[in-house]
Amino acid sequence: MQPKSFTARAKAIATLVAALVVIGVIIWIDVNTGVWNELVVLSGLAAGLVTFLLTTMVLDRILARSAARRWAPVNRIALSEFLHAIADEERSEISRNKIVIRSFKPIPDHIDERARTEALEALQHQVVAERQRLADVLSRWAQFLASSGNNEEILTHIASIAWQFDRIRDEAIESETDSGLTQLGELNAEIQSCNDAVTALEAEIRTRLSAENLSGQPN
């Protein structure tokens, strides 16, 4: 996830440089030629473009960073709420950066039919509970996180994990009627993918919180 953040930051810097180049070209033309005096319509468009670029590339970013700094303590609480939602509270010490996430156990392919049915039912109950925990936190904090800092990527990952919960539940329901190893393999593959996604989310949030604690402000 770090490469994605680096790419996004590189694109933002490149866009800012391009905008400054455009503004510089317009100012150079204005200083060294009389084209804007002769072409009134184009001069108005050029002025509007400069205003737009300065607003979107400079002013909006300054305001966004100011808002992010102001709300940084609340932003940290919001992000830590998601860690509580996915962590095993009995074994985790979140304030000390010790986090043990809850995960789904794959269904063994060598158990008898009764044990398999019980395992599938238990899995469905666990998936519903995990999804509800995540959805509750998301419903409380999504609007704030979307408007208080650079949290779009984390919110997207959380929504993707919630969708994976639904896919595990659907695969588990199908496995109750289809006892074949192929269906069970698909279910276990979905479980592994979801566990990996939750682990990656935990690492992403923990890294983000550590960076904010060190810098005193969001990235």
Instruction: Estimate what percentage of residues fall within beta strands.
Output: under 5%
Radius of gyration over C-alpha positions, nearest whole angstrom: 25 Å
| Quaternary structure classification | single chain
Query: Can you write the helix and strand succession as a string?
Result: HHHHHHH
What overall geometry do the principal axes of the alpha carbons give? elongated
The main β sheet shows up as: none
Low-pLDDT runs: 214-219
Cα end-to-end separation: 14 Å
Mean pLDDT across the residues is 79
Structural class: mainly alpha
Task: Give me the count of strands.
Answer: 0
**Percent in helix:** over 70%
What report would you give on this structure?
Helix 6 (152-177) runs antiparallel to helix 7 (181-215). It is built from seven helices and no strands. The two termini are 14 Å apart. It has helices at 2-32, 35-38, 40-70, 72-86, 113-148, 152-177, 181-215. With 219 residues, it is mainly alpha-helical. The model is unreliable at 214-219 (pLDDT under 50).
